[in-house]
Write a structure and sequence with these properties.
mainly beta, 12 helices, Beta-prop_RSE1/DDB1/CPSF1_2nd, 5-stranded mixed sheet, 94 strands, about 1400 residues
């Protein structure tokens, strides 16, 4: 069995960040490392926007910015685990990172002595440091063919056992380049640290140590002070640095201690303040001040400690870099950051390793208070929150679930929905008070009725109503599910509900008070040169309403010469000559640019206009059912009839090409025209006239040559009929209404839209490649829930009008009707496809020349329309029944819409109620440790000094007993080492643990269940059903310590889940170790208690009765995962991989069946039929196949004579109730010979895998995994597809891979698998060949060979890397042609197959 791997969401945790001019030389950008991903953020409009993301297929150790002397755009230097140094440049044309130079500098791996663990830069100088002893300096220079590395010099520090803590270049003017390092001598038991100065001489290619001084042992970070001297005066070198240690900052100048200042103390952590370190800091800005005719430089720094507290440090120096003064003040408190990024001295970016990455604006730099003690600000004083980049790291656990509301009581549900709507509206009204247009729109003088909730209910009544309504919810099957993630640490943890799709920011929602339901809405500009829309036109069944947008307010226009407000409007549009067309059922109304009105009406009263379409110069009407009338705008401004045509079949839908990018020149500026229009409107309003005259564009020196009418005409018309066909008709004058092409469909075309895309791809391989060419994509929405997409040849004179094979996307069920609406998204044309349950956004990615189909996380609306306003450049206004909704679709960088439910402790495990979706979350944290490590170290250090003095005295007094003294000394050292270990390990952990009870649809009903016994910690959860009653089973431990892993006693408690969301304790039994994992199958409970596998039965008396157990520490170490499939038990061990047991419930026989021969550190596993999916903590994903089991093999049986007679009834003293088979198993362990589990697939992810689940999407399914860094990926079984297209005939069929001992059935399964392999060989071979050809054409940015990276632990097999295959889109045309020729295929065929694989995950 083979799989296709795709990453749905990239890792969200940021490890390193740096700023530089990566896109333009005058604009600052941010580059961030996410482990194996490099992301570029661009700073624009007071926010950070994700520009590009690229995979390294390797682990990024560190990165820095490289500034070249020529002043071009900055480069990025990256060190990877492959031992390569990659110099990367951002290419603006392809919008991707390009490697300009790559060189191997060290061996492969992550060894401590390999340089590249940290990298520091000064212009084009790079300094690479290892964890211990080794430093390397080099210079990057520009060469003819790119860039090169010269003067690469490595050096080893003088102490052999020294650790490099930090380093930086000095800002000096000397010919030689100098740098400082902080080194720790590991041979010294006190952990002595030193500040060392080195000189890098490029001429002789040597690194020379110049000076070394001893500094505070707690020093861990330092910053060099920027050079304030005039560059012309090179007499004084700047060697000023700031060294940060525990609770203080020290200023050094030329290796001399000048001044030490204490860091203000947080009152909440006054006792632990000495253990807090400064983890990051940045230079902000400097000021030049003249005092007594002397120049003084004030340098400002922003630093952060381990709690997230920000401090502003002010350092004052004179012209010769002599110390004047230093001060430090508390600034604000933000989340703990990996490194701070300051942009333009006004914006602060705070990336985080665990948590969201927040973007702030600096409101004020001045601080009036200077206190030694401070309380953190509850609200930001000096910073203003702008936006954040969401992160779900660390993603500890997850569960796939879909919850929907079942209408058991319609009246009750309506009341509840109305209450929720009123609460939401009142909340939005309070938030949007005193806000301008950029946060929403105010509707005035419009027939809008807002339901306001004046009386708010009390919190107690709300909670009671919410509790009662939870029973109205049930789980939803066979739909796109949500992913419920447990993420965060301590107080910053949360339950995050991830819905796959684009998040939406709703600006406003209003109800229309009208008897008629609105049908359609349009947005209209004043003229074709205007950037923004000025009017909304709403069509009803009997009337039309005109709304004017002005200064964020929307006014209703009662009288106007623009429209006929007393009839229904079918279509309206602004023409190329700024005239306006309104189409009704009886004809159309043409308001010309000179103010005159021309009307055209249907000749026969019995006929009316059924369908119509209009662009900037053409009108096509469908009169009756089969007749088409064609109108065309001429240069005189008239709209005459060109021709008419009678079809044989009834018309169902039609459309043609609409071009909106006008190129004619307007001699009047936009601002001037808009100001003139505003003045006219103000004058009219002042006169009190209700009649509104539509303002027309005033063009000076107008000439017809500026308007090319032919340029904006559609060359063809596409008609869909009830015969399940679409027909292309020519609209050219020489060949009008000629049938160009007919395409047969499976169902009638409900909606047709054509997207015009600006790209540089070549749609015709016979033509030369043209930059910024236009291509057209035809999107057809069918009545059976399918969306079909074709690529149209822009050269319509050729015979091949349709170039590619149809790309079919299933967006809904058979009864789902797909309607299409054209909008603008990210500066390009896009389409909203409305299905039965949700809407989808179809957008084009210029970076890889592919389409992206993403659901929109917003309730379905009846009609969508694009509009643009100041503050809302790309907005959408929609009609939903009698409501108007205005919202903004977020950028494509987000694949999920997130909903946060905060928690007070770190979540560990999650289970859900199988009926109503009620969730039980196990929370667990270590608060503090009684014997603090710092105090024990100080206690040890105090004892060392007198012992050394005694030994020296003994040596002076007894010279003859040297041998005995040496022995005594060795014994004393051993005793001291043992005492140190005891002091450091005998620490008692203090825990805080409870159970959170919550329903995702009611976040306010968060309840907590506390454990009654002291020091009781929860470790596992499971839900059991017995006679329509549900029980929560909890595994806990008392007096638990992690290092070493110990537990005084463990418990397994059974709680009954009441209707009021309470937990009622039923029974509680003792166990001898930590019950880390529990699994329930019917009435049986399978528990992993340390290294013991134990089976219980929940009887009718609501008691747990022990049935069987397996306790052999030589086989199992610590059980971390459990699952059961019929009689088979799959056990995941912490360090000994996977084991398979079989338990026969009738005879109570437990057999050790099979094991994984490979050693794996298992974190999670999932069994599906006869296949096992597992992940380990080193980032390896594997798939195994269970072997056949012979039930007659008696040598593998593990029996219990006591169980054959009677069940265990007393479980309070487990020491006296151990099974007799345990001794037998240990004595005869060599007799047990389990079968090896066959490994069929291996794949290296690079991040610790936390969960693996099976997810269903429409008729397909895939296996979803999550990692600790927030990555969400999928494995798609290739059996779902045939060799070319998606197999839609047998989607509902599944292969029953049950674990069964029947040999005949296994033989039949083997025969089926052989047939399946033959069907899937073509598809697997296709992607395998594509992957191998791409490895020859693409060199990864990490320097790793792709196959080597995916085979980090074991040789990769059975899984196709879809992420790597999708790099085919990033190749140039010649490379794509070469690969297509090798595969005997075309570029479009390869692209369509890759897109189909991506669509399956949807």
């Amino acid at each position: 069995m083979s799989f296709y791997h795709l990453t749905i969401q990239q890792p969200t945790s940021i490890f390193q960040s740096t700023k530089g001019n990566f896109i333009e030389s005058t604009k600052e950008d941010v580059v961030s490392s996410r482990g194996r991903i490099l992301t570029l953020y661009s700073y624009s409009h007071n926010s950070l926007i994700e520009v590009s993301t690229i995979q390294f297929f390797g682990f990024i150790r560190d990165l820095c910015v490289v500034t070249m002397p020529d002043g071009e755009q900055d480069l990025v230097a990256v060190t990877t685990d492959a031992g390569f140094l990659s110099v990367i440049k951002f290419d603006q044309e392809s919008k991707l990172f390009v490697c300009v130079h790559q060189e191997q500098i060290t061996d492969k791996g992550l060894k401590r002595n390999l340089p590249g663990f940290r990298i520091y830069s000064k212009n084009n100088l790079l300094l690479l440091t290892a964890v211990e002893q080794t430093v390397m300096a080099l210079i990057i220079e520009k060469a003819k063919n790119g860039y090169s590395i010269k003067k690469k010099v490595s050096h080893k520090t003088s102490p052999e056992c020294s650790l490099l803590v930090d380093a930086c270049w000095l800002n000096t003017f000397e010919k030689f380049h100098s740098f400082y390092t902080i080194e720790m001598d590991c041979q010294n038991s006190l952990g002595q640290k030193s500040l060392t100065k080195y000189r890098f001489d490029p001429k002789i290619s040597k690194i020379i140590e110049k000076n070394r001084i001893t500094i505070d042992p707690s020093s861990n970070f330092f910053i060099n002070v920027p050079n304030n001297n005039n560059k012309k005066n090179k007499s004084n070198d700047n060697e000023c640095i700031l060294i940060f240690s525990e609770g203080k900052v020290t200023f050094y100048n030329k290796m001399e201690n000048q001044k030490t200042i204490l860091i203000p103390i947080n009152k909440n952590y006054r006792n632990d303040q000495k253990t807090l370190n400064i983890n990051c800091g940045i230079f902000c800005y400097s000021e030049n001040i003249k005092e007594k005719e002397a120049l003084i430089f004030k340098n400002y720094f922003l630093i952060q400690n381990d709690l997230g507290d920000l401090f502003k440090l002010t350092l004052v120096l004179n012209n010769k870099n002599d110390f004047k003064s230093i001060s430090i003040e508390y600034f604000d408190t933000v989340s703990v950051s990996t490194n701070l990024i300051l942009l333009d001295q006004r914006f602060l970016f705070v990336p985080s390793n665990f948590g969201s990455h927040i973007f702030y604006q600096v409101k004020d730099w001045e601080i009036n208070e200077n206190k030694e003690l401070f309380l953190p600000n509850q609200e930001l004083k000096h910073l203003v929150y702008i936006h954040e980049i969401g992160s779900i790291s660390p993603l500890i656990n997850s569960k796939i679930l879909q919850i929907e509301k079942q209408l058991f009581n319609k009246d009750k549900d309506k009341e509840h929905e109305q209450d929720q709507m009123n609460k939401r509206k009142t909340k939005k009204e309070n938030e949007n008070k005193n806000q301008k247009i950029d946060m929403g729109m105010d509707f005035e003088n419009v027939n809008v009725n807002e339901n306001e909730n004046e009386n708010e209910n009390e919190n107690e009544n709300e909670n009671e109503n919410e509790k009662e309504s939870i029973n109205d919810y049930k789980l939803k099957d066979k739909t796109i599910p949500n992913l419920y993630c447990l993420s965060g640490i301590s107080n910053n943890s949360s339950l995050q509900i991830l819905e796959y799709g684009l998040p939406v920011s709703e600006m406003s929602e209003y109800e229309i008070n009208s008897e008629n339901k609105p049908i359609k809405i349009w947005s209209v500009r004043t003229n074709n040169c205007s950037k923004y829309h000025d009017y909304f036109i709403i069509s009803y069944s009997t009337k039309t309403e005109l709304l004017q947008i002005k200064e964020g307010n929307v006014f209703s226009v009662l009288e106007t010469n623009l429209l006929d407000l007393n009839v229904q409007t079918l279509e309206c549009n602004l023409m190329i000559d700024n005239s306006f067309i309104q189409i009704t059922k009886n004809g159309f109304r043409h308001l010309k640019n000179n103010g005159k009105v021309a009307n055209w009406k249907v000749s026969s009263k019995q006929e009316s206009i059924e369908h119509c379409i209009i662009n900037s110069s053409q009108i096509i009407l469908n009169v009756g059912k089969k007749k088409i009338i064609y109108f065309e705008l001429n240069k005189k401004g008239d709209m005459p009839e060109k021709n008419n045509f009678q079809l044989n079949e009834e018309i169902y839908s039609f459309n043609f090409l609409i071009k909106e990018n006008f190129k004619f020149i307007n001699t009047v500026d936009d601002d001037e025209s808009e100001s003139e229009n505003e003045n006219e409107n103000e004058n009219e309003n002042e006169n009190g006239s209700d009649k509104y005259i539509f303002p027309l564009l005033k063009i000076k020196n107008y000439s017809e040559e500026k308007l090319n009418y032919d340029l904006y005409k559609s060359p063809f018309l596409i008609v869909g009929n009830l015969k399940n066909q679409i027909i292309f008709f020519s609209l050219l004058e020489n060949n009008l209404f000629h049938n160009m092409l007919t395409i047969d469909l499976e169902s009638p075309a409900q909606s047709i839209e054509i997207m015009e895309i600006q790209t540089n791809i070549n749609v015709n391989t016979n033509l030369k490649k043209q930059e910024n060419s236009k291509v057209y994509f035809l999107n057809i929405g069918l009545d059976n829930g399918e969306l079909i997409q074709y690529l149209i040849n822009p050269n319509t004179s050729t015979e091949n009008l349709i170039i590619n094979e149809p790309n079919v996307l299933k967006l809904g069920g058979k009864n789902s009707i797909i309607k299409l609406f054209k909008i603008q998204f990210m500066g390009a044309n896009a389409v909203i496809a409305k299905g039965l349950e949700k809407s989808w956004l179809i957008s084009y990615l210029e970076s890889n020349n592919t389409f992206k189909y993403t659901p929109i996380c917003y309730p379905n609306c009846d009609h969508y329309c694009f509009f643009s306003q100041r503050g809302i450049p790309e907005g959408v206004i929609a009609i939903d029944s009698n409501k108007l909704k205005i919202f903004i679709i977020e950028k494509l960088c987000k694949n999920f819409s997130e909903t946060f439910i905060p928690l007070n402790n770190t979540p560990r495990k999650i289970v859900s109620h199988p009926i109503n979706g009620l969730m039980f979350i196990l929370l667990r944290d270590i608060i503090k440790k009684k014997n603090n490590q710092q105090s024990t170290i100080k206690h040890i250090q105090k004892k060392e000094k007198p012992e050394v003095m005694n030994i020296e005295k003994e040596k002076d007094n007894y010279d003859n007993d040297n041998d005995d003294d040496d022995k005594d000394k060795g014994n004393d050292e051993k005793k001291n080492a043992e005492n140190e270990i005891k002091l450091l390990t005998n620490k008692k952990d203090i825990w805080k643990s409870n159970i959170a009870i919550i329903h995702p649809n009611y976040p306010n009903t968060l309840l907590f269940h506390e454990f009654k016994q002291k020091e009781e910690v929860g470790f596992s959860l499971s839900i059991l059903k017995k006679y329509n009653e549900y029980y929560l089973i909890v595994g806990t431990g008392v007096s638990v310590s992690l290092i070493p892993r110990k537990c005084k006693i463990g418990y397994i408690a059974v709680y009954k889940i009441t209707k009021k969301m309470d937990l009622e304790l039923i029974t509680k039994i003792k166990v001898e170790d930590i019950p880390y994992c529990l699994y329930v199958e019917k009435d049986f409970l399978y528990a992993g208690i340390g290294s013991i596998l134990r089976i219980y039965k929940f009887n009718d008396e609501e008691k747990l009765i022990q049935k069987q157990e397996f306790a052999n520490k030589q086989v199992l170490n610590f059980i971390v995962s459990l699952s059961v499939k019929k009689d088979f038990i799959i056990v995941g061990d912490l360090s000994k991989s996977i084991f398979l047991f079989r338990y026969t419930k009738e005879t109570h026989i437990l057999r050790f069946v099979a094991k994984d021969p490979l050693t794996r550190f298992i974190t999670t596993h999932y069994n599906d039929k006869k296949f096992l999916f597992g992940g380990d903590k080193f980032g390896n994903l594997f798939v195994s196949k269970f072997p056949k089991v012979n039930p007659n093999d008696k040598s593998k049986k593990i029996t219990n004579s006591n169980n054959n007679k009677k069940d265990y009834e007393d479980n309070n003293n487990l020491n006296n109730s151990k099974s007799s088979f345990q001794k037998w198993n240990i004595e005869n362990r060599n007799i047990v010979n389990p079968i090896n589990i066959k490994n069929i697939a291996n794949f290296h992810i690079g991040e610790m895998i936390c969960s693996i689940q099976k997810a269903f999407s429409q008729n397909f399914y895939s296996y979803i995994y999550t990692t600790i860094l927030g990555t969400i990926g999928s494995l798609i079984p290739l059996k779902l597809l045939n060799a070319i297209n998606v197999n839609t005939e047998n989607n509902n069929e599944s292969i029953d891979y049950d674990l069964n001992d029947n040999e005949d059935e296994n033989d039949n399964e083997d025969e089926y698998e052989n047939k399946e392999k033959n069907n899937n060989d073509n598809l697997f071979i296709f992607f395998t060949k594509l992957q191998s050809l791409l490895q020859e054409q693409i060199k990864t940015l990490s320097g790793n060979v792709h196959s080597h990276w995916r085979s980090y632990y074991l040789t990769s097999k059975g899984i196709i890397d879809g992420d790597f295959c999708e790099l085919f889109f990033t190749l140039n045309l010649n490379q794509q042609k070469l690969i297509a020729n090798e595969m005997e295929s075309s570029i479009l065929e390869i692209s369509s197959k890759l897109q189909k694989m991506r669509n399956i995950v949807l």
